[in-house]
Design brief:
The structure is a single chain. The chain is of the alpha+beta class and about 575 residues long. It folds into 2 domains: about 300 residues, Alpha Horseshoe (Leucine-rich Repeat Variant); about 240 residues, Jelly Rolls, CATH 2.60.120.200. About 30% of the residues lie in helices and about 20% in strands. The protein has 17 helices and 16 strands. The chain has a 16-stranded antiparallel β-sheet that branches. A hairpin with a 6-residue loop joins strand 8 and strand 9. It comes from Adineta steineri.
């Protein structure tokens, strides 16, 4: 069972109005002769202790173990050239042979050839950009210093673009240990444009995760020697700009949208309908490359009997459609008038209210707000066994109906939830995965009325199932609801991940700082404000970057606020500033 060091007081919620970078902004323009600055993305950081002792913490933990990629071809096995040249490469000295091949080509042709080996085909920024071969990506960085700066810049700019475009590419880069490799390269890079792009790579990676070893490596690299900053180390301070901004949960299920991609639930013997029921989860769409909207119908969930009677929700383009069916002649569909954007987290809640003598209804909430209500005149109760229950796919498990993206904790409640409670669930944020048992866990987030309504025991006792990415053993997803609750399942309530799904545990800067001693570990950087760079100049914006980062961290974390006070942080910073 995976264990994470987290602070229960830091329940972070997404701001529904916060805008994310659009695809059009994904690829930075590179000019080797210019001094154009690059917007740092968000980063990831390797696994080395500050004292030089390597720790055995995985860069990205998975409760079910690291995803073992399907057998892939290396650069020596696959080299697809857009010019259809025959380029046989032996398994021996394949890196040198690849270098020899690309040395005879223009930068554009060489870049295309290398990118083709990463995606197992003809690379295309719109249709084929998902990295399939982590091994080839690792080999690319191993030979990085042996290719020209202009080719380095061209490859890095495209790589940054596809990392920003897809969470799956970020996961592949973590699996390939790119973070450590970038730090190894920084000391040898002379070209400022390439150095800026490498820093951008780190910034994008740390937007997903930064664990203890990675943060230690960053801080160790930022430590000056003889009052001189290491090469390009001042550029790394830009990473701090983005560390405080955390969008989404630290843990999630990753669905690649391929065959055998979904969660399989055990049979449900009695569906909760008498008091209504509510389905809620956080999700993010990560669209499949080269998808055909007319053919694809990815399902968020499928809760049905063997005859196909039950409840489903599927996407048509960027819209979500909920469906209900009892008999062949009785079916109901409702399209939610809301356009979901790719790569943004949303909380979706369907609150079903059953009326015996009048029309039943379903209320659709997005990010805690009611967006539509649908009525249907017939009862949807069923005494049949719900033995076809899936999250993220259908019984066929094929790629056309499989969800592509990420899901956080998935709840089913055996009661209809009032809008006030739904708003409270949204305030708890995508990271919440508990049982609504302890009121103090959200005392600083919820209103008095919401706390009373959510922690009086009724909500906890109504949990039919709670599947979250932390409660996993190998491919088994444990039912994390209270054991004392009435069971609605035929046997045990544990679900199973199909082969292409993985549960991912990342590390935010907040939990990582807490693990290595708190916010005070960055205080020594204030003692280096007047230290020179290798060319003898002094960078005067170091102080502003550090102070801005500190302010953002304090604003977003009660734990860091407490650490600043208990460690006399303001007094310490003042002392360092006085010395400069």
């Amino acid at each position: 069972m995976s264990e994470e060091i987290k602070d229960d007081n830091d329940v972070q919620s997404d701001d529904g109005n916060q805008e994310h970078e659009q695809t059009e902004e994904i690829i930075p323009q590179v000019s080797l002769n210019g001094e154009e600055e690059h917007e740092p993305a968000q980063e990831i950081i390797p696994q080395v202790s500050i004292n030089g002792e390597e720790e055995n913490e995985p860069t990205l933990a998975t409760p079910n173990g690291r995803e073992t990629p399907s057998p892939t071809l290396s650069m020596s096995d696959v080299f697809i050239d857009k010019q259809n040249d025959s380029l046989p490469i032996s398994t021996e000295n394949n890196t040198q042979q690849l270098l020899q091949v690309i040395s005879e080509k223009s930068n554009k042709e060489a870049s295309s050839a290398i990118l083709n080996t990463l995606v197992d085909g003809d690379f295309d920024l719109d249709k084929n950009y998902i990295i399939q071969n982590p091994k080839n990506l690792s080999e690319l960085f191993s030979m990085f210093n042996e290719i020209s700066p202009s080719l380095q810049a061209e490859i890095l700019s495209v790589l940054i673009g596809i990392m920003r475009k897809s969470e799956r590419n970020l996961l592949v880069c973590v699996d390939a240990n790119i973070y450590n490799k970038v730090f190894e390269l920084l000391n040898d890079i002379e070209n400022d444009v390439v150095a800026n792009l490498l820093v951008d790579i780190l910034t994008v990676l740390t937007s997903l995760t930064i664990n203890v070893n990675e943060l230690k490596l960053l801080l160790r690299y930022l430590k000056t020697e003889n009052k001189i900053w290491k090469k390009h180390s001042v550029k790394l301070l830009n990473i701090f700009h983005h560390l405080p901004y955390r969008h989404g949960p630290d843990e999630f299920f990753n669905f690649p949208g391929r065959n055998n991609s979904g969660l399989v639930l055990p049979p449900i013997k009695t569906w909760p309908y008498q008091n209504g029921f509510t389905i809620t989860t956080w999700f993010r769409i990560d669209p499949v490359a080269n998808s055909v909207i007319e053919k694809e119908k990815p399902y968020l969930y499928w809760f049905c009997t063997s005859k196909g009677h039950g409840y489903t929700a599927h996407f048509v383009g960027n819209c979500l459609v909920i469906s209900y069916s009892k008999l062949k002649e009785k079916s109901f569909q409702h399209c939610i008038q809301y356009e979901f954007k790719s790569r943004e987290w949303y909380m979706i809640t369907f609150a079903h209210q059953y009326q015996r003598w009048s029309k039943s209804s379903v209320q659709c909430h997005i990010n805690g707000q009611l967006v539509s209500t649908a009525y249907f005149p017939w009862s949807i109760e069923s005494g049949e066994l719900f033995d076809k229950c899936y999250i993220g796919c259908t019984p066929e498990h094929n790629d056309l109906t499989s969800f592509s993206g990420q899901l956080s904790t998935f709840y089913l409640f055996s009661i209809y939830l009032e809008p006030m409670i739904v708003q409270g669930l949204y305030k708890l944020g995508p990271a919440y995965k508990n049982q609504f048992k302890f009121e103090h866990e959200s005392a600083h987030i919820l209103s008095e009325g919401q706390r009373k309504a959510m922690y009086d025991g009724k909500l906890m006792n109504s949990i039919v199932f709670n599947y979250n990415p932390i409660a996993c053993e190998e491919k088994l997803v444990l039912q994390a609801g209270p054991k004392s609750n009435v069971s609605h399942f035929v046997h045990n309530a544990h679900a199973q991940m199909l082969s292409n799904v993985r549960s991912v545990v990342t590390h935010s800067i907040y939990s990582t700082l807490h693990s290595i001693g708190g916010i005070q570990v960055i205080f020594p950087l204030f003692d280096q404000l007047d230290h020179q760079q290798m060319n003898g100049t002094i960078t005067y914006n170091v102080c502003s970057v550090l102070l801005l980062t500190l302010c953002e961290l304090i604003e977003r974390s009660y734990t860091i606020q407490h650490q600043m006070l208990s460690s006399k942080g303001f007094l310490t910073i003042g002392y360092y500033l006085e010395k400069v």
